[in-house]
Amino acid sequence: MIALSLTVLLAVMTGLGGVLLWSSGAQAQQTDNASAGQAPAHQPSSRLSESDIARMLPSTDMGAGASMHGDMHARAFDGSQATPFDAAPIPQNPLAPGADAIGAKSCAVCHALETIQASHSLHVASFRAGSANTGPQASCEACHGPGSAHAKNPAAAGLIIAFTHDAKTPIETQTRTCLSCHVGGARQHWIGSAHQERGLSCTDCHNPMTRSSAEGVLAKDSINQVCATCHQDVRAQFNRRSHMPLPEGQISCVDCHNPHGSITQPLLKTDTVNETCTTCHAEKRGPFLFEHAPVGENCLNCHSAHGSNQENLLVLPVPMLCQQCHTNSQHPNDLLTRQNLRNGLVPDERVMERSCLNCHSNIHGSNNPNGAKFHQ
């Protein structure tokens, strides 16, 4: 009797253990299945999707389409929120007014090499990421215009917007296409600027199809090389004895100039020459208790902005520079010439070393009560 009771008790305990083991196993299996179902949502993808690229794109000052349908001044920079890339318009080609968009895949059938080159550019990546509303044609036709007429007759010039000087597309159409997105900001003074008046197009300085520069989609490695393509005389001035540190890479042309246009004739980024110079040379800004009139008027009265064969970028050696104003008046009362230099026929101690600056050391201005003559 006792043996039978023990057997029944053992059987009951074994059954309960099996039920418990089955229950825990089922719960573990459900947990594994749930984890497996959620894994793709948390697992990082090896490739970036178009939505990822669109989310990471920087803010732009694109003003889509407003300037294409009228005066380009209509979209002056107003500081509003950036227009998304999927609002990039398809420009109108005046030489093919009835053309329709055919899509980037049609373009790639013939332009395979250009497609490979452009695939690495920021423009194409941006247009592809923002093609939800514009459509797949954005990556090519957002710049080159609708391509149906060009596809029907590829040999005819002008049926697609081309960005070269030997193309049939007018320069105005080329720049209007770029400004349909890039209007405003640093380009708000492009109309009427020196570069626009001389017939330059955006692609004379930029190449959006390839990446030749670290930034700015420039046509050459650096902005200095791009500017030197035309301004070779200015580039030569930086090779003079005293020059701004542009060849050393410490500054670039756009630190002082805005190539896209400015309210000043030399395309300065500020209103005056002095404001541009004192951006770096703040100690010369003043105001001073005793001011030197030529300094307050224009720094270029005494200095050459890019380079000079005289020290400190001076346009003439001292004292010849000083005597442009101070001649036969008070001190000195005689005209000093090159013959008064150390190796001249009549050496004069007043032109030795720093000449006038030996005494008038604070020539840019003085705040000392005894500095009326810029001695202190």
UniProtKB/TrEMBL annotation:
PANTHER family referenced in this protein's UniProt entry, alphabetically: DISSIMILATORY SULFITE REDUCTASE SIRA (PTHR35038), SURFACE LOCALIZED DECAHEME CYTOCHROME C LIPOPROTEIN (PTHR35038:SF6)
Domain called Doubled CXXCH motif: residue spans: 243-285, 292-329
Ribosomal protein in keyword set: no
Record keywords: Signal
Residues covered by the Cytochrome c-type protein NrfB-like domain: 140-208
Signal peptide positions (record): 1-28
InterPro entries per the UniProt record, alphabetical: Cytochrom_c_NrfB-like_dom, Decahaem_cyt-c_DmsE, Multihaem_cyt_sf, Multiheme_Cytochr_ET, Paired_CXXCH_1
Protein name: DmsE family decaheme c-type cytochrome
Pfam entry (one): Cytochrom_c_NrfB-like
